[in-house]
Design goal:
With about 350 residues, this protein is α/β, with parallel strands linked by helices. It is about 25% helix and about 25% strand. The chain contains 11 helices and 17 strands. Strand 16, helix 11 and strand 17 form a beta-alpha-beta unit. The structure holds NADP nicotinamide-adenine-dinucleotide phosphate and zinc ion (2 copies).
C-alpha cells in the first residue's frame, strides 16, 4: 500500500476532515496520478448527505479531476510519467458485456466501478475519490488531457461535461436544433456551452432571474424564469431537446410541455423515482430519456471537441482546504458555475 492524504466525510453533516488515505500498489495496468484539480459536483453533496459516518466505509468524494502521471505500471504503454491526464466518475468495467463492447462502459451490465464509493473488481476495496493528492487508476479509464485545455477548467468536463455531452451528441444536436437547458449550474452551464458550440439555438430555463446576463454571455438566446407561467406557456412545444439538470426532485410536466413534437426530455439531474402523466408524453409523441457519465470513446471525443472549440467550465478555484466552504455554497446555489479544488495545498 501507498499513502496519500485527502478530504474524508465523517458523517452526513459534519465538515470533511483531512485524513491520510491508502492507495493500492500499482498493478501492471495502473497509473499513479498526482491529482492537481478536482471539481465539486452536486453528486458529491448528495453522497455526503447520504453518508452515515462510522457505519459505512470511508467516503472521499471527487469524480472529475485532472492530474499528472507520476508512475506507470509495467504493462502501461499509452502513458508516460509527466503526462497530463483526466479521470471521470468511472474507473473500471467488466470489458466483456454488450455495453462495454459497444463502448458504453458507463452502462456495464455488472455496473461500472465508480471513482468513489465503488467496489474495486480485483481486491474488493471501496474506492476513494479525487478529493486527495494521489489516485491510482487503471490506464483504460484515464484520458490524455488535450493540449490547449486548462487543467483546472477542464476538470469538470469529466463528470458534468460528459454527462451532458452524451445526450446532446446522441440526440444529434447541431445547427438548426432548438435546445433548452433547465437549471444553470455545473452541468447546466456546460450543456449551454456545448449546445451553442454544436450550433444549436439554446435557451436556459431557470428559477434564478439574476442568471440572465450569464446565460446570454454563455451563448444562450434567452433565460426563461421557470416560475413565469406566461413565458413558460409561450415556450410550449418549442424545443427539440430539453436537458434537465435540476438537482432537486421536481415535477417533469412543465419541462415535458416545452418539448417539441417527437422531441426528447433528457432527465439528467436529480436521480430517483419520477411520476409522469402519460398525457404529457402522448400529446406530441414526446420522449423521456436519461443518461449518466459516458463511455470511453465518447469521453475522449468530448475532450477533443472541447479542445477544438475552447469549451471548458467557468470555475471558481479554491485551495482544497476550503472544500467545506465550497460544499456549503454549492448547497445554497451560490456557485458560478463550478468549484474546482486546487489540491497542491495537500503536499
Ligand atoms: N446523470 C448523471 O450521471 C449525473 C452526473 C452528474 C450530476 N448529476 C446530478 O445532476 C444534478 C445537477 O448537478 P450539478 O453539479 O450541475 O448541480 P448544481 O451546480 O448545484 O446545479 C443545479 C442547478 O439546478 C437548479 N436547482 C437547484 N435546486 C433547485 C430546485 N429546488 N428547484 C429548481 N431548480 C433547482 C439551479 O439552477 P437555477 O438557479 O438555474 O434554477 C442549480 O444551479 C445533481 O442532482 C447531480 O447529482 C447527475
Ligand atoms: Zn458528478
Ligand atoms: Zn461490462
Amino acid at each position: 500500500m501507498r499513502t496519500t492524504v485527502g478530504w474524508q466525510a465523517a458523517g452526513p453533516a459534519t465538515p470533511l476532515l483531512r485524513a491520510p488515505l491508502e492507495r493500492r500498489d500499482l498493478r501492471p495496468d495502473d497509473l499513479a496520478v498526482r491529482v492537481d484539480y478536482c471539481g465539486v459536483c452536486h453528486s458529491d453533496l448528495h453522497a455526503i448527505r447520504a453518508h452515515d459516518g462510522a457505519e459505512r466505509p470511508p467516503l472521499v468524494p471527487g469524480h472529475e479531476f485532472t492530474g499528472t502521471v507520476t508512475e506507470a505500471g509495467a504493462e502501461v504503454t499509452g502513458f508516460s510519467v509527466g503526462d497530463r491526464v483526466a479521470v471521470g466518475n468511472i474507473v473500471d468495467s467488466c470489458g466483456e458485456c454488450a455495453m462495454c463492447r459497444a463502448g458504453q462502459e458507463n452502462f456495464c451490465h455488472t455496473f461500472p466501478t465508480l471513482t468513489y464509493g465503488g467496489v474495486d473488481r480485483r481486491d474488493g476495496s471501496t474506492t476513494l475519490g479525487g478529493y486527495s493528492r494521489e489516485y491510482v487508476v487503471r490506464d483504460r479509464f484515464a484520458y490524455p488531457l488535450p493540449a490547449g485545455l486548462d487543467p483546472a477548467a477542464a476538470a469538470p468536463l469529466l463528470c458534468a461535461g460528459i454527462t451532458v455531452w452524451e445526450p446532446l451528441h446522441t440526440l444529434e444536436v447541431g445547427p438548426g436544433s432548438r435546445v433548452a437547458v433547465a437549471g444553470l449550474g455545473g452541468l447546466g452551464h456546460l450543456a449551454v456551452k456545448l449546445a451553442v458550440a454544436l450550433g444549436a439555438e439554446t435557451t436556459v430555463i431557470s428559477r434564478s432571474p439574476d442568471k440572465a446576463d450569464d446565460a446570454r454571455r454563455l451563448g444562450a438566446r434567452a433565460l426563461i424564469v421557470s416560475t413565469d407561467e406566461q413565458r413558460m406557456a409561450e415556450a410550449r412545444d418549442r424545443f427539440d431537446v430539453v436537458i434537465d439538470t435540476i438537482s432537486a426532485p421536481h415535477d417533469l410536466g412543465p419541462y415535458l410541455r416545452l418539448v417539441a413534437l417527437d422531441g426528447t426530455l433528457s432527465h439528467l439531474g436529480h436521480l430517483g423515482p419520477v411520476t409522469v402523466d402519460a398525457m404529457d408524453l402522448l400529446v406530441g409523441r414526446k420522449r423521456l430519456s436519461s443518461a449518466g457519465s459516458g463511455g470511453r470513446p465518447a469521453t475522449a471525443a468530448m475532450l477533443d471537441f472541447c479542445a477544438a472549440t475552447g469549451v471548458a467550465a467557468e470555475i471558481e478555484l479554491l485551495p482544497s482546504a476550503q472544500v467545506n466552504e465550497a460544499l456549503d455554497r454549492l448547497e445554497r446555489n451560490d456557485v458560478r458555475y463550478r468549484f474546482v479544488l486546487d489540491m497542491s495545498d495537500l503536499d
